[in-house]
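User: Can you help me understand a structure? I only have the sequence.
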Amino acid sequence: MSMPYPIPATPRVISPSPTLSESSEQASDGYFTRSVARKTRTKSPQPEPIHEETKDDGEGSDSSLEKRARARSRSPILMPASDGVLMNGSTKPRRRMSGLTSRTSSSGLIKKSEPLPTKHTATANGNVVPPQINGHLSPYSQIKKSWREFSRSPSPLGLIPLHRHYRTLIHKHEIPRKALHVSIGFLTLQFYTRGAQTTAITPWLLGMLVPIASVDILRHRWPAFNRTYVKILGALMRETEVDGYNGVIWYLLGALVALQFYPKDIGVMSILLLSWCDTAASTFGRLYGRYTIRLRRGKSLAGTLAACFTGILAAWFFWGWLAPRTGPFIDDPAEGFMFKGVLSLPSRAREVLGWKSEEGVLTGTAAIAVMSIATGVIASFSEFVDVFSWDDNLTIPLISSAGLWLFLKAFGG
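Assistant: Let's start by predicting it. Here is the structure, written out as tokens:
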């Protein structure tokens, strides 16, 4: 049945495309298409590329190098608008790179030293209004940043200026520090070949320990002097020593104990292990530690094996080659050497095994080989173990000298 009043078709209205002038002024007559709206949107500026230095991987006895945290995040941050409009006239939040673009109070943005806005400071449209400067001191101004005033270097803490300019040479591989470390071992051998006794060296060690420790205490109480000290000796320091005590103090203290309270050969060998094994462990740990398993924080299998192998070579060189060709000297003590080229099982162990008195005894090359292997194991253990977080310049000579003394006390002929 046909309707008496048919429903007319819905008219189709086609909106004319606005001209360029209309699109820029957003056409006051109301005609607006999606293409024009897309063009009128203000695009956020692309952040500038970040130029950072290449990250240096590596492990060593210093543990800090491996794990470095940035002081500020470099992820893009959307900055809130002030009254709905930003500096560039757009209503879209502008993106900035934190740490690369400074926030100014003239732009109506929040400064770091100002307190965070609360919900009472928000306007009706949801935009956050930053608090106004009231003339009071910022709470951040009361925080002393003395250790950050030394430099802004890319090193983990940024304390030593030389670590910035010579990052690979000084900070990563510690070439000057390791050169000094190794040279002390050769200096010890020089004293030994000249017939110097431990009782003549320990007073010199004590004479150096007192002024160096006094200067270290003074620089921690005088920041200006500390900054000068770091600038001059920064190439030989680690960043943990800026606010802590210098490793030379622990080096001298460990060498003093080893030479004063142990026989001559034990004291000399403990210093050689400190000088050479610790350096080898740090060098090979930084170079190849990432390819081996991690034994504990800052210690890898590569570094521990390097310390063991270096200890074996040092013991074979000293007891197998240098000592038999040097001395004896006139003023050598009667019991100056614990290792006399003979190793044997304890008498109690031979009785349990039913061996005769001449059995279970090693002499010559076999004794030197066993003694060298034992020295390498003791050296790697002293370099690996952590004793109350003490400096390894102190723990290595203490543990190695005690370990060698106990081993020769049990198996020495």
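Now, to help you interpret it: The mean pLDDT is 74. Residues 3 and 9 are 14 Å apart (CA to CA). Let me know which part you'd like to focus on.
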